[in-house]
Write a structure and sequence with these properties.
heterodimer, A: alpha/beta, Rossmann fold, 4 domains, six-stranded parallel beta sheet, five-stranded parallel beta sheet, 28 helices, 50% helix, B: alpha/beta, Arc Repressor Mutant, subunit A, four-stranded antiparallel beta sheet, 12 strands
Chain lengths: 879, 227
Amino acid sequence: MNTSRPANDAERFLRLAQRGERGRLTVYLGMAPGVGKTYRMLQEAARKRAEGKDVVVGIAETHGRSETATLLEPLAVLPRKSIRYEGHTLEEFDIDAALERRPDLILVDELAHSNAPGSRHPKRWQDVAELLVAGIDVATTLNIQHIESLNDVVAGFTHVRVRETVPDSILASAEIILVDLPPEALIERLTAGKVYLPETAGRALANFFTLPKLAALRELALRFAAGSVDRRLLDELALTGAEGDFTVGERLLVAISAGKGGAQVVRHAKRLADLAHAPWTAVVVESGGARSIAGQQREQLAENLALASSLGASLLTVAATDVAQALVDEARNLRASQIVIGKSRRSRWFEWRHGSVAQDVIRKARGVAVHVVPLDEADEKPAQDRDANPWQAPLLALVPVAIAVAVLFAAEGLVPPAVIDMALLVPVIAAAVLLRTSAGLWAALWAALAYNYFFTTPRFTLLISDSANVVTFVVLALVAMIIGALASRVRRQAETSAGVARLNASLARYAGLLGGISDRDETARVACREIGALLDVEAVIVAREGERLVLRGNEGYTALDTVDEAAARWTLEQAVPTGRDTGTLNASDWQFHPLKTSLGLMGALGLARREQGRVIRADDATLLASLLDQTALAHERLVLEEEARQVGTLRERDRLRGALLGSIAHDLKTPLTAVIAAAEAIPDKGIYAEEVRIARSEARRLQRFLGDLLEASRIEDGGIEPRPETVDLTDIVAAVLRDLRQSESGGRVVTRVDPACPLISTDPVLLRHALINLLDNALKFSPEERPIEVALECDDTSAICRVLDRGPGLPADHEALFDRFERLEGSDRVGGSGLGLWIARNFVEALGGTIAASNRAGGGAEFAIALPLDPGAESEVHA
Amino acid sequence: MRKDVLIVDDEPAIRRLLVGALDRAAITHTEAGTAAEALRLAQATPAPLVALLDLGLPDRDGLEVVPQLAALGLSVIVLTARDATQEKVVALDLGADDFVTKPFDSEELLARIRSALRRKAGPLANSARRDFADGHIDRETHTVTVRECAVELTPREFDLLWTLADKPGRVVTHERLLETVWGPAHRHDLNYLRVAVRALRRKLEVDPGRPRLIVNEPGVGYRIAGA
């Protein structure tokens, strides 16, 4: 399983890297209220403050304990936010004030607290998550029974189910500090009145504080803290590469059912996954009957899935008739090493009749460990039996049998007696195919009885006189049952594949529709219309335009109210589902889903449903995921198409401009030659001496300019083909100096040549041109009295030609210097086409060399051309 | 009356400029705007001595005209662009005497013309001595003197220096030098030439890192500074 390692490593590394910019979470974990978590947290905060950290108390409950209050005194405390709710004023942690204040560390007591209705997040841990995302360190307190994955365990021995739970995911990267106290000491503190108990929960809590229960809670807390240390250690080890292979390849698969017990199975799986440090996947198998799951059960299934997702599972829905086989197949596909499945306590009779998925999985699984979680509630019955009238199936089955009997009776004499028993199979098949499995079985029973009653002697009794008829009766009953079972299985398979086919057809149609559109608004409109129709919801696409949010695709909605907008923004910022039925801002009427693409977030899809209930039904979750993918892909395609179009236009425009420049430059060349020759011919003496000099230098400048344009258009046409020959760099430098002396200011240039430089193989014309451009540039920028230096030196691998000036030097961000039309700030004064360095770079790169610019010590700039040395260029001397 | 210089250029402005410069230098001249006219004027009697030839002509490729003018006994100076290296090499191979890079410096141009006229007027004494800036080379005595000092050269270096000094102030292409000094088989072994020139410079130049006597036209050839 080594193949999965790099991806895993990358993921872990990312997580660790992210931890750098995210805030760090410190959790003071206790086994029960009263162990001194807040006190300890405040102590640590005081220490951090003494170290010079900006520490702020976001919210801290002293519960009237004076020691705690004393600790709180020196610390800055954020004012609480008052929220009016049903006539009461509730005081809550003010997350906006905290984000505004941006302290190094903020204390937010009681992580499991539920916020007052109307707050940004329903849960305090969500406030904390936002603070962490904003890069603020948070310290908080938590009791062990509030941890989601331990919820069942705690409830199991305390018989108190805690409603306020914190998902394990937020604790995954937290530093857990265990605040421990022996149970005896805690009870002592309790009886001494040192522990404040909320009156409302007084009895329950008092019931809680017994020695055995506290001992169990303490053990749980210790184990959790140890596990957390272990996990963090593994992360660090993975980062340093010191980790062994023991965590690689483990994966858990948990089967999710629609029953209440599903949640229990999910929590169990989460604990196992944590112990194994393994990723886990929650699988829902849609057997044929699943579409007929009653409303309440569907809700439950959605809840179970949501729980699994919040505990860190990835979700998967597969369609199959054989649930057990599908689970085992999926386990093999995902290379899962363990399957977790629930099993309710049911009678043997029930299991004999309906079979047990858990049993089947155990029988079929090979090389996979199966964990069976015993469930308290006997709610794992197949759905179709649950809400149907128990008499419905036998009565319905009676109908086709009765019709068949009536027909056979009426046609007696025409039908040979031997055919009657076969003819009675017809209503059985009809019942099995058209009705339900159970109806088929009932029909088989009715048919057998009818055969006995109506057609065997003695007739109109259930007695059988002929032993041959006994055999016929038994065979008929058996055949009818088998055929009934088979027929109903065929029907279910047909239904399942029809369902899958419908799903695929919808998706294909959707993709096809979107694929044909090349306009963003139209895409949004079609997407919203189709998604709305497929999921029976209202859909709208929300995108960010600058700071504003815009709605697209649904004329019925043009603006969002404050809560909805906050939810949409949260989705756009955090790329997570937000709003109705989610854990964040669920006061919103809309549920927003991120449209993720490889180019980033394209926007959010908002979904709403007029009636009550969940926006997205559980069995539509997979469809929604596919629709989101398709929508995001369509948007991504549009963006890419648009970019491609723009690039195409730009390239065409560039080409035309290049051609135009080339031809203009060519036409200007000849007259300019005349101008320069004329200007050179006029003696620069007498009263017009200065004017003549200006005419000369400006004409030369214009000539350089034109030369640059011509070279640039040549480069753009791809017209530079180096013709390398053996070159003595001394010659190139000398030629460049001659060129300059021909014009002006060549006398300022001094050369420093390393005589040991070997001959190199390069194109002398291109190199000379590049060097002239560098010198031109240096002459332009350095003050006239300062010399410019050309230095030629070599090392073992390359020849380096430097041009050094004492001008103003380069700006900090000088990477763009070698780009086209790039000029230093304020360089308009000295003029130039802005092409010189770009041309030099192109030429040098065509020669296989590199060009670099840097600032010199003592002021000025240095440009260096480095060319690779050709070891064969200098062969033996033939002089 | 003899016209010393034949100006061949299709641009009237350039022709007028060249005319002005030659007038001031008191050099007689005649001008042509096309290759056909140039060839006609070159056959006048007495024929011009030097042709100043722009290669961009309306009726024919200037390079075709080079050997024809040379065959008529004219010394051809080609006007060409700085980076048109191949054009220069081909023109020199076809019999051009020299080239001047556009946009030209009229002083440099006049110097070249005067030097060409001098060569035409008094054909070089068929002596064994050639002069160049700072010194001379003597084939008879096999001696080289630079800044009044005798210099020892290897036979190859001597041949190379002689080939260059035979045309002082004018460019001799790399191929010509290699062919003459090393033989036709080595006309592309440029590194032989580079190494030899380095050695020669070490013996003759004041500062071999900044050569002034033996000058290279990158991609074209070498020129020795005239006396």
